[in-house]
Amino acid sequence: MSNKLQTLLKWFEDNKIEWDKDALEIKESNGSFGVHAKKSMKKDKPVVKIPKECILSIKTTGIANLLDEANLEGGCPLALAVLYEIAQGEQSPWYGYLQALPEHGEDLPIFWEEQEKDWFHGTEMESAVHNDLIDLEDDYEELIEPLLEAHPYIFSRGTNLDDDPYSFDKFIKISTLISSRAFEVDAFHENALVPFADIFNHSGKNEHVHFETEFDVCDACGQLEYCEHQYLNYLEDSDANGEEGSEDAGWEDEDDDEEEADEDIDDAELAELEGMGMETELPDLEELENAGVDFYNDDDSDDSDEEQKKDTCDMVLDRDVQKGEEVFNTYGDHPNIALLSKYGFCYDDNKNDYVSITEDSLIECCLAITGELLKAENPKASEKEIEKLAIERTRPRWEFFLKNEPTLCPSEDDDEQPEGRDDFDEDCQDDCCGPDSHGDHEGHQHGHAHGHDDEEEEEEEHAHEHEHDEEGGCCGGEEDEEGEQSRPYFINYEGLFEDKLMCLLHIMFISEKKFATFVEDVDNALAYFEELANSQGAEKKTQAVVDLKRNIYQVCRALAEFRRLEYFEDGEWVPVEKDEEERKACAGDLRKYYALTCRISEKKILDRSVQYYSELVEEYSKPATAAGGSSSSSSKKKPATASKKNKKMKL
Question: What is the pLDDT of residue 446?
Answer without folding.
Answer: 35
